[in-house]
Amino acid sequence: MTDERRTGKTRRLEDEDVYHLAIAVARLEEKNAAASKAIEVAKEEIDRRLLEMNQLRHQISEERGHYVLRLEFDTKHDTLNRAVSNLQRFQWGMIGGLAVFQVLIGLVLHYIK
């Protein structure tokens, strides 16, 4: 009789174990489905970001064609510097000439009186 009770008890434990295992398997399947969905959402987000990065890279490549080359900039900048230097020399020459003219007028007016 002890063996029968033991067998029956073992049988009941096995049925409970199967029930709990079935619940555990169902929970794992739910977690697996949720993880698969999360992976799919993450994949879509990465694809969207990569697409935006590629569009930005394309835009930068297009805009790069509109930039002035360094050699061209340096050449035109040197030309402008020379022009400004010439204008400054002319300006200082005019200021000096006007200063001399003013002194001469002052002397003439001083001696004419």
Structure description:
With 113 residues, the chain is mainly α. The protein folds into two domains: 1-67; 69-113. The chain has helices at residues 2-64, 70-112. The chain starts with a helix and ends with a helix. The mean pLDDT is 88.
Give a quick precis of the structure.
The protein has 113 residues and is mostly helical. 94% of the residues lie in helices and 0% in strands.
User: Which secondary-structure class do the elements indicate?
Assistant: mainly alpha
Number of helices: 2
Tell me, briefly, the overall form: rod-shaped
Number of DSSP-assigned strands: 0
Estimate nothing, just give the exact number of structural domains. 2
Strand content: under 5%
Termini separation = 154 Å
- Proportion of helical residues: over 70%
N-to-C SSE string, H for helix and E for strand: HH
Specify the biggest β-sheet. none
Write the layout of secondary structure elements.
Blueprint: H1 2-64, H2 70-112
Name some characteristics of this structure.
113 residues; rod-shaped; 94% helix; mainly alpha
